[in-house]
Amino acid sequence: MPNTTDFSAKAPPGGNHPKRSTHxxxxxxxxxxxxxxxxGVITFLLVPSPIEPAKWIAPxxxxxxxxxxxxxxxKLSSAQIVTDAxxxxxxxxxxxEGNLYTGDSDGKIYMVPFDAEGNPQEAQVFADxxxxxxxxxxxxNGNLIVADIKRGLLSVNPSGTVEVLADQVDGxxxxxxxxxxxxxxxxxxxxxxxxxxxxxxxxMAENKPHGRLLKYDPITKQTTVLLEGLYFANGIALSSExxxxxxxxxxxxxxxxxxxxxxxxGTSDIFADNLAGFPDNITRDEQGHFWVGIFTTRISFVDQxxxxxxxxxxxxKLPESLLSGASAxxxxxxxxxxxxxxxxxxxxxxxxxxLYGVTTAVSHNGYLxxxxxxxxxxxxxxxxxxx
Length: 387
Prior knowledge:
The chain is mainly β. It is built from five helices and 26 strands. The chain has helices at 18-46, 201-206, 300-307, 309-315, 320-323; strands at 80-83, 92-94, 100-103, 108-112, 124-128, 133-138, 144-148, 152-156, 162-166, 168-169, 172-173, 177-182, 188-192, 211-217, 222-230, 233-238, 244-249, 254-259, 268-272, 277-284, 290-297, 333-338, 344-350, 358-364, 367-372, 380-384. Strands 1-26-25-24 form a four-stranded antiparallel sheet, with no helix packed on it. Strands 2-3-4-5 form a four-stranded antiparallel sheet, with no helix packed on it. It has a four-stranded antiparallel sheet with strand order 6-7-8-9, with no helix packed on it. The protein is globular, with a radius of gyration of 27 Å. The chain crosses the membrane at residues 29-47. Residues 178-263 form the Strictosidine synthase conserved region domain. This is Gluconolactonase. Belongs to the strictosidine synthase family.
């Protein structure tokens, strides 16, 4: 029987082909989306940046592949865990009995005792600052002096009671108390990292100095500003003779020296520059050597961004949550050991990244103790200082 029904896809005269209509709708939707995206990009580019970046040509980063003290090695790779009770032990110090103390980002300060053979025992909560304790060091009266990011300069007595020593200077807030060291006469030197009040990629992009070096006098209970205009003021350490104090400028890969005695008293200069990463905390050993924790190796994009204020300003428009990954630490553990004159003696590394995000390196009783910050490895580690 002949088929008299036409099931072909032909459109009726004057009508639209179904497939053609679908393609047109898809095309219209695509063009609309593209217009929205282009409009968003144009609007984003036209919106003023929240910062006015300063151009900076950063020095070429040292190479880990070339012979010299920065040459890649695995000296940190053998580090063993001491305690994992604090997840982010920013700084490490010891009391007269040899017990280890460290803080965590949740406000707790832990004490770790050791047995007669030097083996670490279970960590105990010593105090809670209700803030974020970073720098720690005992004074001669047995009080633990604490640089707390959120609360300022604190004193914690042996029973764990917390007292605020300073949270203002010259009638203005101390914005981000970070690290400290204590002189023999009890004077406390500490850093106020930034007027931003917290770590922000926007400040790195701006490339302007907002940090300060401060001094607290325990007799007068007065706080004074010694040095301003620091690029993310961080670690603090006094020299053996206490004729100068060092402060790390993380965002310019350098350590600045402020003279406390001698003909240069009251002036500052660069102690060590062009480090292979962002310097964090500084400690001094019995030989007068300075140990510098390098939180992350250099970030090539950041150095390139500093060359272009337009790029830096554009990046600062993005939400901070999207930028946090850009400044996350590289999985390359790094510590620098410097002479009393600022010369790099050697570097200690873990290029495989089992230990990274290093903030602190403390030489104590034949071991190098390592602290870290959020984004890096967790817990306190140590390794023998045999070479």
